Structures are given as structure tokens and as C-alpha cells.
């Protein structure tokens, strides 16, 4: 059986790299990033995004992550991946293959303190094409709104 998380990058070689294609890089293919400064201290933001409520929002219902590199996860909707990096109160980096996708992407969530506020970023690499990038931009903007709402409603 083939590993569903094994990246096959042949599709990126057929997509020409042009400097006028926003979101297309030579090193990580198509990518998208969404960031927002939230009016909450970093520990509160980290606790949410790394805990069950936050993971359910940005990774999928049922997601649990071990901070161990290589640890596997599966969400209730069938997304699979593994942990590529986990730095407490700094960043989480995982691979992700949602159900129905024929390729693996990499998602990174970072937090950085800005006084008593926090800069929260979601970044996704190895998207298939410009259309998928546009779709994922909408997805991550929606996720950011949901995370901000969860932070605002948490004491």
C-alpha cells in the first residue's frame, strides 16, 4: 500500500513558474498565507490553537496533535497528516491531505507577541494550482474569523 502522505511533486513541474503569478514559488509551489493581529495575549492564543477547540477549527473535528515530529493524525472527516514541527508557543507545522485531494499540503500556524496582542498566521504550501490557492484563501480567512470569535468568547 502506498503512503497517502508521500508527496509526489510531478504536478508542480508542469506548472510554469512566472514572476507575475502571485502565490507561486519555486520552492513550495502554490501557497497562501492569512494573518491577523488579535487583541489577546500570546499564551491565550496558543492555548486555543493548540488545544481541542482550536484544532477542531483549523485542522478539523476530532484532530489531536502530539508535539512529536512524525506523529500522525486523522480528523473525523478523513483528513490525514503528520507533525513536521511543533515549537511550544511559537509554531505548529503539519502535512495535510484532506479527503478527496490527490496531494499533500503543508500547513503552518505561527504566533508572535505584539505587546498584549498576538499576530496569528496560517500558511499553506504545496497547493495544486491558482484555483486551489484562491479557494484556500477563502478557507483560511473563514478559519481566522472563527478563531478570532472563539478567542473573543473565551475568558
CATH topology tier name = Alpha-D-Glucose-1,6-Bisphosphate, Chain A, domain 4
- Radius of gyration, whole Å: 16 Å
Mean pLDDT: 89
Measured between the Cα atoms of the first and last residue, the distance is 47 Å
For the biggest β-sheet, the strand order reads 1-2-7-6-5-4-3
Please tell me the total number of domains: 1
Region (Disordered): 1-25
Organism: Actinokineospora terrae
InterPro entries: ASHA1/2-like_C, START-like_dom_sf
Pfam family, one: AHSA1
Describe this structure in words.
Residues 1-12 have a biased composition (Basic and acidic residues). Residues 40-149 form the Activator of Hsp90 ATPase homologue 1/2-like C-terminal domain. The chain has 155 residues and is α+β, with helices and mostly antiparallel strands. It has a single domain, classed as START domain (Alpha-D-Glucose-1,6-Bisphosphate, Chain A, domain 4), CATH 3.30.530.20. It is built from four helices and seven strands. A seven-stranded antiparallel sheet has the order 1-2-7-6-5-4-3, with helices on one face. A hairpin with a 3-residue loop joins strand 1 and strand 2. The termini are far apart.
Amino acid at each position: 500500500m502506498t503512503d497517502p502522505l508521500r508527496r509526489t511533486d510531478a504536478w508542480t513541474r508542469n506548472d510554469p513558474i512566472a514572476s507575475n503569478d502571485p502565490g507561486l514559488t519555486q520552492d513550495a509551489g502554490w501557497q497562501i498565507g492569512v494573518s491577523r493581529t488579535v487583541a489577546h495575549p500570546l499564551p491565550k492564543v496558543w492555548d486555543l490553537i493548540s488545544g481541542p477547540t482550536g484544532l477542531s477549527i483549523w485542522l478539523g473535528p476530532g484532530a489531536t496533535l502530539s508535539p512529536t515530529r512524525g506523529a500522525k493524525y486523522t480528523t473525523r472527516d478523513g483528513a490525514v497528516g503528520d507533525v513536521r514541527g511543533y515549537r511550544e508557543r511559537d509554531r505548529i507545522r503539519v502535512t495535510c491531505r484532506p479527503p478527496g485531494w490527490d496531494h499533500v499540503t503543508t500547513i503552518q500556524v505561527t504566533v508572535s507577541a505584539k505587546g498584549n496582542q498576538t499576530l496569528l498566521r496560517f500558511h499553506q504550501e504545496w497547493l495544486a494550482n491558482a484555483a486551489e490557492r484562491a479557494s484556500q484563501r477563502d478557507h483560511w480567512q473563514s478559519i481566522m474569523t472563527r478563531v478570532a470569535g472563539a478567542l473573543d468568547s473565551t475568558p
